[in-house]
Amino acid sequence: LAGTRIIYDRKFLLECKNSPVARTPPCCLPQIPGVTSPAQPSLVKLGELKEQNESEETLPGEQPYNPRQ
């Protein structure tokens, strides 16, 4: 059995690129950060970074480490 082959010309395909339908993601597309949606750091990592920054803060009267001195 031979099927029907659909052939699109270049002009039609270039016009489809600017179609509003082509700019709308499918309704059932999964939300995968960094793939189908912008990358967002997880809340767990943000909490870890906050704890790390707080532990690196200097105490009053203590000189911060400066490798250029």
Automatic annotation (TrEMBL):
<dbReference type="GO" id="GO:0008190">
    <property type="term" value="F:eukaryotic initiation factor 4E binding"/>
</dbReference>
<keyword id="KW-0810">Translation regulation</keyword>
<comment type="similarity">
    <text>Belongs to the eIF4E-binding protein family.</text>
</comment>
<keyword id="KW-0652">Protein synthesis inhibitor</keyword>
<dbReference type="InterPro" id="IPR008606">
    <property type="entry name" value="EIF4EBP"/>
</dbReference>
<protein>
    <submittedName>
        <fullName>4EBP3 protein</fullName>
    </submittedName>
</protein>
<feature type="region of interest" description="Disordered">
    <location>
        <begin position="49"/>
        <end position="69"/>
    </location>
</feature>
<dbReference type="Pfam" id="PF05456">
    <property type="entry name" value="eIF_4EBP"/>
</dbReference>
<dbReference type="GO" id="GO:0045947">
    <property type="term" value="P:negative regulation of translational initiation"/>
</dbReference>
<dbReference type="GO" id="GO:0005737">
    <property type="term" value="C:cytoplasm"/>
</dbReference>
